[in-house]
C-alpha cells in the first residue's frame, strides 16, 4: 500500500479546477490502494488534457502526482508533453519527464524512447541522447537513424559512420533517411564509394533523398562526373534532385553546365524555387552575366510574390518562363 502526500494533493487540486469535483476521493487517498484501476481516472484524464493543451505547468504538476504513485499515462500524452518542452526550451522539465518514464523499473515502449532521444538531440545534448540509446532494450531503424542524423549534423562524422557499422552488425536495415544522413558524414571518397555500393545493393539508389544526398556529396568532393551520372540515372524527375545537381555545378564554378541544366529543368516543366534560383545567380556571378542575373532576380521577386499568394490561399498568377 502506497500513500500520497496531502501537500502534493492539495497543491495539485488547487491548481486543477477540473479535479475539484473529486476532492473527496483525493483527500482520502492516504488509504487508497494505488493501482491503475483504483487511482482516480480524472488524474490521468487531466494529465492528458494538459499535455494536449500545451499547459506545461499543470501537466508537470500532474506528472509529479503520477510519479509519486508509479502511474503512467499513454505514449501519445507523453509525446505531446515532450513537444511542449521542446517548444519552450524547457530542458529541466524534459529531463524530469525522462526520469519519470524510467522510474521504478518501468520501461517505456520503443516509440516513446525514440521521442526522448530525439528530445535530447534537439536540445543539443548528444551525450544524454546516447545514454538513453545505449540503455534501450530494443532499437529499431528510427533509433539508429536519429543518432546517426544527430552526429552527422554535429559534424561528428566518425561517430556517424561508426553507428552505421554497429547498426548493420545488429541486423537493422538502414532506410533512405539513414543513408541520406550518413552520406553527408562521409569524410573521404573511399567511404563515399563504399556507401554508394551499399545503397545500390539494397535498391535505395532510386530514392529522391538518397539520390540528392549522393549528388551533394560527390559535388562537395569535386566529383562532378559521378554527380552527373547519379543524376542521369534518374527515371522520373524531381525538383529536389534538379536543385542538387544545379547547385553542385554552381558551387564548383562550372556556371555553363549549371545554366544548361537549369534550362533543361525549365523545359521539363519544373518551376524553379528559391534554392535553385540561388544556385543560378551564383552561376551568373561566376560568368559575369549581368543581364541574365537581372532576369533571375526578377524571377526571384515573382517567386516571393507567388509564395505570398499561396500563403493567403489565393491562386498564383502565371509566371513567364525564364530563359
TrEMBL record:
Main subcellular location: mitochondrion
Any one GO biological process: RNA modification
Transmembrane segments annotated in the record for this chain: none
InterPro entries cross-referenced by the UniProt entry: PPR_At4g14850-like_plant (IPR046960), PPR_rpt (IPR002885), TPR-like_helical_dom_sf (IPR011990)
Domain of life: Eukaryota
UniProt GO MF annotations: RNA binding
Annotated coiled-coil segments of the chain: none
Keywords: Mitochondrion, Repeat, Transit peptide
Any Gene Ontology CC annotation: mitochondrion
Family: Belongs to the PPR family. PCMP-H subfamily.
Protein name: Pentatricopeptide repeat-containing protein
Protein source organism: Salix dunnii
Lineage: Eukaryota, Viridiplantae, Streptophyta, Embryophyta, Tracheophyta
Amino acid at each position: 500500500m502506497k500513500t500520497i502526500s496531502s501537500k502534493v494533493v492539495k497543491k495539485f487540486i488547487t491548481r486543477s479546477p477540473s479535479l475539484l469535483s473529486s476532492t473527496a476521493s483525493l483527500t482520502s487517498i492516504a488509504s487508497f490502494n494505488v493501482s491503475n484501476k483504483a487511482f482516480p481516472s480524472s488524474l490521468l484524464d487531466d494529465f492528458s488534457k494538459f499535455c494536449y493543451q500545451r499547459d506545461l505547468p499543470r501537466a508537470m504538476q500532474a506528472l509529479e502526482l503520477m510519479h509519486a504513485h508509479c502511474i503512467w499515462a499513454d505514449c501519445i500524452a507523453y509525446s505531446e508533453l515532450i513537444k511542449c518542452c521542446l517548444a519552450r526550451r524547457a530542458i529541466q522539465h524534459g529531463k524530469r519527464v525522462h526520469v519519470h518514464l524510467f522510474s521504478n523499473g518501468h520501461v517505456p515502449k520503443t516509440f516513446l524512447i525514440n521521442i526522448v532521444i530525439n528530445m535530447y538531440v534537439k536540445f543539443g545534448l548528444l551525450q544524454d541522447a546516447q545514454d538513453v540509446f545505449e540503455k534501450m532494450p530494443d532499437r529499431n531503424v528510427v533509433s539508429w537513424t536519429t543518432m546517426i542524423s544527430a552526429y552527422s549534423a554535429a559534424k561528428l562524422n566518425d561517430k556517424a559512420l561508426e553507428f552505421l557499422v554497429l547498426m548493420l552488425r545488429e541486423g537493422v536495415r538502414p532506410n533512405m533517411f539513414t543513408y541520406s544522413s550518413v552520406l553527408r558524414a562521409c569524410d573521404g571518397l573511399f567511404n563515399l564509394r563504399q556507401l554508394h555500393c551499399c545503397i545500390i545493393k539494397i535498391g535505395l539508389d532510386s530514392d529522391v533523398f538518397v539520390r540528392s544526398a549522393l549528388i551533394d556529396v560527390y559535388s562537395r568532393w569535386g566529383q562532378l562526373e559521378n554527380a552527373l551520372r547519379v543524376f542521369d540515372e534518374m527515371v522520373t524527375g524531381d525538383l529536389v534532385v534538379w536543385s542538387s545537381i544545379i547547385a553542385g555545378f554552381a558551387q564548383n564554378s562550372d556556371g555553363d553546365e549549371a545554366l544548361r541544366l537549369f534550362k533543361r529543368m525549365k523545359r521539363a516543366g519544373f518551376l524553379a524555387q528559391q534554392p535553385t534560383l540561388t544556385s543560378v545567380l551564383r552561376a551568373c556571378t561566376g560568368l559575369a552575366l549581368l543581364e541574365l542575373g537581372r532576369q533571375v532576380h526578377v524571377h526571384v521577386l515573382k517567386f516571393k510574390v507567388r509564395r505570398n499568394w499561396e500563403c493567403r490561399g489565393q491562386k498564383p498568377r502565371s509566371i513567364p518562363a525564364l530563359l
